[in-house]
Amino acid sequence: MEHITPHPEHKSPNYVLIFIWLIVITAAEVGVGYIPNTVLPTLVQYPLLLSMAGAKVLLVALYYMHLRYDSRWFLLAMIVSLPLSVMFILALVLGYVRK
């Protein structure tokens, strides 16, 4: 007789709370965009905006794409493909700016 182990139960995420966090982070991004360069230099502003955008990507990927509860192989595939997509976008942007 075969013994089948059940999948571990996980608590359903609070999608409304995650959506509120996404709104808060977006509002913070817009707020940072309105801060003059004399108060917050561009050298600080861009990494701050990129980190907030990264936090939103992480929230969407983990909860709305269900990567937090899926197989770790899906997460690994996303992590491996992320640097490739960043390099592709960077090459496109730099090629466009160069013209």
Structure description:
- The protein has 99 residues and is mainly alpha-helical.
- Helix content is 71%, strand content 0%.
- It is built from three helices and no strands.
- Helix 1 runs antiparallel to helix 2.
- It is flat.
- The N and C termini lie far apart (68 Å).
- The mean pLDDT is 84.
Counted beta strands: 0
Residue runs with pLDDT of under 50 for 5 or more positions: none
Mean pLDDT: 84
Distance between the termini: 68 Å
Helix content: over 70%
Elements, N to C (H/E): HHH
Gist?
With 99 residues, the protein is an all-alpha fold. It is built from three helices and no strands.
Give a quick set of tags describing it:
0% strand, flat, mainly alpha
Mind sketching the topology for me?
Blueprint: H1 15-34, H2 42-64, H3 72-98
Helix pairs in contact: 1-2
